[in-house]
């Protein structure tokens, strides 16, 4: 089996530089729709049979465009939602982004996994919803040639993919980045899931 971890296309929230990790508030920009269409075309021959999407609008719209091109249905799952930033939701000011950065560093640098912004999620919260979802995919499709696409967000992938992919760490994110519609391809091999391609670059 293979899992195609896809980041959504550019959204209105990205242009507004607004923290938007709840609900159906910000969809794709015109450029974001073009990015999703280009990715769909690029993967046309990969025979992807299932799409799972974050419940946020930018991910849903990306999934719709992919599914329309591939003639594949998509399913929304909270497991792929971007991490909740609590009281920072809908803010775009410098102080809010400073708090966001402090949380990011608490998790990635200091390993203070329990920290959260008031009303938001901790690293442990993300792990409780993401890891079991990937484990279910592996159990369901491990003996098949199924190819699954997961449409989610940069923040969630930065935190969670190093936990489920044996050869991925934070250094790879720094090296390769995770821009709009970045594609990270994982393959089930002896010993677990391994990243075999990062946005067109074999690993």
Q: Main beta sheet: strand number and arrangement?
A: 7 strands, mixed
Count of the domains: 1
- N-end to C-end Cα span: 17 Å
The CATH class assignment is Alpha Beta
Rounded to the nearest angstrom, the radius of gyration is 16 Å
Segments where pLDDT lies below 50 for 5+ residues?
none
Total strand count, please?
Answer: 7
Question: Describe it for me?
Answer:
The chain has seven helices and seven strands, in the order βααβαβααβααβββ. It has a single domain, classed as Rossmann fold (3-Layer(aba) Sandwich), CATH 3.40.50.1240. The protein has a seven-stranded mixed beta sheet with strand order 3-2-4-1-5-6-7, sandwiched between helices. α2 packs parallel to α3 (57-70) and α5 (123-141) packs across α6. The longest helix has 19 residues, at 123-141. It has helices spanning 12-16, 30-42, 57-70, 94-108, 123-141, 154-164, 170-176, and strands spanning 2-7, 50-53, 74-76, 147-152, 183-189, 192-198, 201-202. By secondary structure, the chain is of the alpha/beta class.
In short:
The chain is an alpha/beta fold. The chain has helices spanning 12-16, 30-42, 57-70, 94-108, 123-141, 154-164, 170-176, and strands at residues 2-7, 50-53, 74-76, 147-152, 183-189, 192-198, 201-202.
Question: What are the salient characteristics of this protein?
Answer:
203 residues; alpha/beta; Rossmann fold; seven-stranded mixed β-sheet; 7 helices; 41% helix; globular
Task: Describe the secondary structure blueprint for this structure.
Blueprint: E1 2-7, H1 12-16, H2 30-42, E2 50-53, H3 57-70, E3 74-76, H4 94-108, H5 123-141, E4 147-152, H6 154-164, H7 170-176, E5 183-189, E6 192-198, E7 201-202
Parallel strand pairs: 1-4, 2-3, 2-4
Antiparallel strand pairs: 1-5, 5-6, 6-7
Helix pairs in contact: 2-3, 5-6
């Amino acid at each position: 089996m293979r899992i195609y971890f896809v980041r959504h296309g550019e959204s209105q929230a990205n242009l507004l530089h607004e923290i938007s990790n709840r609900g159906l508030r910000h969809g794709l920009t015109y450029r974001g729709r073009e990015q999703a269409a280009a990715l769909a075309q690029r993967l046309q021959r990969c025979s992807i049979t299932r799409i799972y999407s974050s419940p946020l609008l930018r991910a849903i719209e990306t999934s719709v465009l992919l599914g329309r091109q591939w003639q594949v249905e998509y399913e929304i799952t909270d497991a792929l939602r971007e991490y909740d930033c609590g009281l920072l939701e809908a803010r775009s000011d410098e102080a809010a982004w400073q708090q966001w950065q402090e949380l990011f560093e608490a998790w990635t640098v200091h390993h203070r996994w329990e920290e959260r912004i008031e009303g938001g999620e901790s690293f442990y919260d993300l792990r409780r919803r993401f890891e079991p979802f990937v484990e279910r995919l592996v159990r369901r499709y491990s003996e098949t040639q199924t190819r699954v696409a997961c449409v989610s967000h940069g923040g969630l992938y930065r935190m969670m993919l190093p936990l489920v992919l044996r050869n991925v760490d934070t250094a790879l994110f720094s090296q390769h980045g995770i821009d709009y519609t970045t594609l990270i391809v994982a393959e089930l091999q002896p010993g677990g899931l391994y990243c075999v391609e990062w946005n067109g670059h074999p690993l």
